[in-house]
Amino acid sequence: MKQAYENTGFQKKMLNRALLCLVVALTCITAFDIGGTRQPIRELLRSKHRQTECVSTCSPLVAATESPYAPDLIPSDQFYISYTTSEAGCMIADITCVGGGLSILDYETYDGVGGTIGYDNQDVNVIEGQLPCYKDGWGATSDMGAIIDNTLNCAVQEQIPTTTTVTTTPSTTTTTPEVTTTEVTTPEITTAEVTTPEATTPE
């Protein structure tokens, strides 16, 4: 009986120690997490997993002809896309959206997440951004993260008139020399009076 009691006491002691160790371990893990160390490591691993190499060719981007924010915002008539190639040989899209009032430059993706390149709310907004070309599409780290139909929204509250560059031509003044006409004096012709001698008839 005594031996059985001792065995039971030993088991309880070991169980208490195990529970204590478990509590300490959980406390350490929680503190480790609260300290902000585990989360960055997880994010680092995730970001490493998400890294995608860029490629040299993607289909051209296009401007949306209808605004998803209508009637409050309309498609801007000043939306520009140009393409460059990085030193690594990656294709890059340089995007500019111009508008007045609330202006948004964004896109929709197949996974429903979408992306916002920029937005502003000034009298005149010039929103600029870049998208790298990845194997799954512009700025896409997965096939479902690709931009739907490669369409970008440049939605603005007001259109900004296109600025026309005025080229000023220097004014050229042509001076016409004054032509002086020399007065030609015609000499007066004097007609000599011819006197006819009176004929005398002899008596």
From TrEMBL:
Name the record gives this protein: C6 domain-containing protein
